[in-house]
Amino acid sequence: MRLSALHPMTSRTVFWVLCLGIFILAILPNNASIHAFPEADKVLHAIAFAGLSFIGCLAYPVRIFILAVFLVVLGAAIEVAQGYTPGRSRELFDLLADLIGISLGMLAHRFSKRAG
Predict the structure, then answer these.
(1) CA proximity to 103, closest of 57, 58, 60
(2) Quick one: which of 23, 21, 98, 11 has its CA closest to 57?
(3) Could you tell me the pLDDT band of residue 3, with boundaries at 50, 70 and 90?
(4) Would you give the DSSP letter of residue 89?
(5) In this predicted structure, what is the pLDDT of residue 33?
(6) How far apart, in whole angstroms, are the C-alpha atoms of residue 109 and residue 112?
(7) Does the pLDDT at position 30 exceed 60?
(8) Which of 31, 33, 39, 71 is the most exposed place for a label (fewest CB within 10 A)?
(9) Tally of helices (H runs) and strands (E runs) in the chain
(10) How far is CA 100 from CA 32, 54, 87, in A?
């Protein structure tokens, strides 16, 4: 089954559940013991936002620009919220990792459309 064959409501539900889940995970107190290497959190940010943007492109294929703006705002909101979370801090490089993830997810979506 092609990814684009998913029912739009299904992909939209998955997208919004993931948005909420990622936001909640991002504002939980930091557990540094889960990081396998320094700056592992940047990789996690990029992976999370790559997945979000890919699924977001499936959910809202004609609103890619609005999706990108929303995801950037979500990343910024996470950074602000982390500033108020014990054991977390606001980091510009986390937001940069989010931007890289958003770009990678959108590129992956674009290439998957061409391949399919």
Answers:
(1) 57
(2) 11
(3) low
(4) -
(5) 53
(6) 5
(7) yes
(8) 33
(9) 4, 0
(10) 23, 13, 24
